[in-house]
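Q: I'm a student working through a structural biology exercise. My instructor gave each of us a protein and asked us to get a predicted structure, then write a short paragraph describing it. Mine is Adenylate kinase. I'm not confident about reading structure output yet, so if you can add a plain explanation after the tokens, that would really help. Here is the sequence I was given:
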Amino acid sequence: MRIVLVGPPGAGKGTQAAFLAKNLSIPHISTGDLFRANISQGTELGKQAKAYMDAGNLVPDEVTIGMAKDRMEQPDAERGFLLDGFPRNVAQAEALDAMLEAEGMQLDAVLDLEVPEDEVVKRIAGRRICRNDSAHVFHVTYSKPKTEGVCDICGGELYQREDDSEETVRKRLEVYHTQTEPIIDHYKGQGLVVTISALGKVSDVTERAMEALRGERAA
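A: Happy to help. First, here is the predicted structure for Adenylate kinase. I'll explain a few features afterward.
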């Protein structure tokens, strides 16, 4: 299957992408991984991306599209892929459509993870990170430490990252609504969008998504 995964920040896209890709035996292709791989390998596209990033500028669509195209042409993606973070806007979606059409392929589904905005803010703004080890993550509602402000694992101080503040989260949501959400309408016109609720346990959301995708595959 060839799937695009979309949803607002805090919807759990990365977590669901990993589970879904494993269940479907297809590679999980994330924008973050593409950038890291190209930059670390010193590819021409990686060098271009790094130059823009070092200058504090956004990486142009054509560079991101080029990285995605190279990755989708790898042997492990012949049977399909799950795209996470790409396309990020309508221009990238149109470029993806053209790439697939040129290869005689098409998307099977665009999986839209739906989460109320207030829940997104609650999920992200409630995160607390250990100063000693950023892998130690807690939440003021969903995963409380035994002692407020103290990491259960190492005793380090827990803090809220600047990126996780409510103000920053709402700004990220504005960007999502302006730039990324329009791709849902783009793909609705092609009859590809499958919307599921991303509320509840991770395993429940995964099963919900698999059921929806099985329905698409059967259709």
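A: Here are two points you could use in your paragraph. The beta strands are 2-6, 28-30, 81-84, 109-114, 127-130, 137-139, 158-159, 193-197. Residues 59 and 140 are 35 Å apart (CA to CA). It's a good idea to check both against the output above yourself.
Q: Great, thank you!
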